[in-house]
Amino acid sequence: MGNDGGSIPDRRDLVRNKPKAEQADKANQTRARWFFCALSKRKLQEPIVSCALGKLYNKDSIIEYLLDKSAYGDGERICGHIRSLKDVKTLTLTPNPAPPAPENAAPSAERAHFVCPLTLKEMNGLQPFVYISTCGCTFTQAGLKTVSSTQSKEAETQLDVCPQCAKKYSRADDIVALNPSQEEEDDMRANMERRRLLEPPKKSKKRKNTTPEDPEPPSKKQALPGMNPTIAAASRAVVSGLAMEEAKRKAGMSDAVKSLYGSADGKKRKETFMTMGTFTRYA
Ligand SMILES: [Zn+2]
After folding, report:
1. Residue 190 falls within a domain, yes or no?
2. Are residues 23 and 142 located together in one domain of the fold?
3. Angle between helices 182-198 and 229-251 (to 10 degrees)
4. Do 140 and 116 meet the contact criterion of CB atoms below 8 Å apart?
5. What stretch of H or E contains 90?
6. Contacting residues for 156 by C-beta, under 8 A, at least 6 apart
7. Distance 168 CA to ligand 1 centre (A)
8. Which residue windows does the record flag with biased composition (Basic and acidic residues) (predicted)?
9. What is the pLDDT of residues 116-160, one digit of tens each?
10. Which domain-ending residue is among 146, 179, 212?
11. Residue ranges making up the domain that contains 230
12. CB within 5 A of ion ligand 1: which residues?
């Protein structure tokens, strides 16, 4: 390498290995995202679910998390946006018809377990994959685009039909990218928050507006003995009001603040696969 008086090392000699290491790290991250549960870091095993941000999880890990939010140390960071099983969709996946790699093969030679039913491309991170949030069927983005573009285009508003199960979906609203890029993920998160603002609050607004004299709802509430229905309704209203405010605050966050959060996230992303929070549990 030099420094023995015979030659002078230049930059290429000194940093030669770096890009290779980065490449390996990227490959590891890709493998982690497509072969392992984003929450438990265990191998993905059906039933597999995905969220509004397109991450892949084992359904049992999500159930575990929902029952006990501290079951995974960094669970809140990874899937704090999952409030119930209604926020995830079980994916309909197509098993890879190719024979699995031999037992002793290197992990990087591992075969994807699933393929796109339209193109038979493997789901290994090399091709963008999407799922339809109404039915959970999973395809390559390209495959689904090809099929849906041949469907009738009479009206933009017309719903498409899933090529696998024939359930209807909206091309604009119901296609979710799996393991999206950071920018895509940011957009998807913003969309998710916007959608949630439109959701009716858990305890309907109707109750908030009902006066104590209103004969119908109180009679229902009196079913709870020992509870003053008016106070109960008022506290519920306060809680849902606070939740709405919080949601509004998040949605109204200025771009500057968002970009701050974005870059903080970006930094986290750069952690290597091996140092990433929960991975040690798997190792
Ligand atoms: Zn389908």
Report:
1. no
2. yes
3. 150
4. yes
5. strand 89-90
6. none
7. 8
8. 9-25, 188-202
9. 999 999 999 999 999 999 999 999 999 999 988 765 555 556 789
10. 179
11. 200-251
12. 135, 137, 162, 164-165
